[in-house]
């Protein structure tokens, strides 16, 4: 079994580890780095629950090997809120719009939206909806998530058409 030394920057701290070549990034983050906010559902890139940000891009961590993450900067949902507990705007929007229920899908959705809204310009609603289409939620019916996403685009989802259309 091949083993590899890796160094990864996770949520502002540096982690060194020796990992098997077959270890997925999702299992590394949960089992080695202790980031259990990284949820694992389908394990084959469909549900989006395991999404984290790697060097600025939203990535399905079940489809990446830990060894491939060597030298990268990773943000998981644990690294988003401020140290004083102030929520990231994406987290706040989902909270305000009741965009979660059991919470299993939520960290992945949060990380996708956080990556999408990290730039200087606001994403277009179509971009955000397209990104959300890669996430499966079994609880909410998506409307609260959709309202939160529209808010992040600068659209107050106050009209029934925007909120529920
Ligand atoms: S667990 Fe990675 S996409 Fe479903
Ligand atoms: S809130 Fe339960 S799966 Fe989305």
UniProtKB/TrEMBL annotation:
Q: What are the alphabetically sorted keywords of the record?
A: 2Fe-2S, Iron, Iron-sulfur, Metal-binding, Oxidoreductase
Where in this chain does the record put each 2Fe-2S ferredoxin-type domain? Answer: 4-80
**Species assigned in the record:** Sinimarinibacterium thermocellulolyticum
Query: What's the protein name?
Result: (2Fe-2S)-binding protein
Question: Is the Zinc keyword given for this protein?
Answer: no
Task: Tell me the superkingdom of the source.
Answer: Bacteria
- Pfam families, sorted: Fer2, Fer2_2
Q: Which SUPFAM superfamilies match?
A: 2Fe-2S ferredoxin-like, CO dehydrogenase ISP C-domain like
């Amino acid at each position: 079994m091949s083993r590899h030394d890796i160094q990864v920057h996770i949520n502002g701290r540096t982690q060194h580890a020796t990992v098997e070549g077959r270890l997925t990034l999702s299992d590394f983050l949960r089992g080695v780095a202790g980031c259990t906010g990284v949820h694992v559902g389908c394990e084959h890139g469909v549900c989006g629950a395991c999404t984290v940000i790697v060097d600025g891009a939203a990535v399905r961590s079940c489809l990446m090997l830990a060894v491939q993450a060597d030298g990268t900067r990773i943000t998981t949902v644990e690294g988003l809120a401020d140290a004083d507990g102030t929520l990231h705007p994406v987290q706040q929007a989902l909270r305000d719009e009741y965009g979660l229920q059991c919470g299993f899908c939520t960290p992945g959705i949060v990380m996708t939206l956080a990556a999408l809204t990290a730039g200087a310009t606001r994403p277009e609603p179509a971009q955000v909806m397209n990104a959300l289409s890669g996430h499966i939620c079994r609880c909410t019916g998506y409307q609260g998530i959709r309202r939160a996403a529209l808010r992040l685009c600068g659209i107050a989802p106050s009209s029934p058409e925007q909120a529920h259309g």
